[in-house]
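#lab-general

N.A. 3:47 PM
ok so I finally got the sequence cleaned up, no stray characters, all 295 residues accounted for. can someone with queue access submit it? mine expired

B.Y. 3:52 PM
send it over

N.A. 3:53 PM
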Amino acid sequence: MDNPPLATETWLEDRMTNHTRGTILVGVDESLNANIAAAWATDIGRNLGTPIRAVAAWTRFVEPALHGIEDRISEMGAYAADVATRSLHGAGIDDIEVTAVQGHVCEALLGTAKQLDASMLVVGTRGLGPLAGLLLGSVSRRLLFATDRPLVLIPVQTTLNPPPLTRILIGVDCSPVARRVLAWSSRLCADLGVPATIVRCADPGCEKPPGHVERFDDRVEAEMEEALQPFHERHVECTVRIAHCDPRVGILESAAGDGAGLIVIGKRGAGQFSGLGGTASYLVRHSPLPLAVIP
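B.Y. 4:20 PM
back already:
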């Protein structure tokens, strides 16, 4: 499925609803956290019954005038793939095919994801080589802004033996991307057979005359009932909580007390904490749990 040059809202919504069981693509190098990300991807792929592929990017310069340059490029690519594969095998991960791609890690991952029509990108939050400092600057922001498919970020606190995923926590607001977040999450919950906790981030305003918050909550709950139809249709058990606080605080506090193994949010939101300068950017840096960011 080729994506349009600039993905439309309709195209994205259809993709988040109907393309959740494609190839899972994970970025790897010889680092521990890349192996941890691969272990998480393998576990999810096994439960979903979907293939898992890995990309190892390499950027070493090859002199254009060098005799036999094509053979040299092939050798360097094979070496990069072999190093990543041996690292995965050393971590007990034996069933992922690794492809080496010459170029910057962002282009390597995004280009391969498009070729494979991957349903999910998975990366670790620390790495070596091309993945080093992934979430410390421009590389992470480039991936988050550029990808037109779910990006799952695996924090360093995760282990090579991830615990079973038994609940997914979903943070939403009133923005258009929230529909895509709910559509994708409902499908993933149904495919994995796990319940969901939905945290609806809402601010009733600074002025709180008697009954104002209660009336506000009633309105939000009525709006959420319609938004929850995908969960009801797929028979997914879900709990809704309304958070009258900074969504960054509400989502992390709910996740800590809820036993969730994955947080799902939209890449852009509404209101005071919209965009990657707000909730998504904060959770990318501070979430102790795997974080799925939906375009």
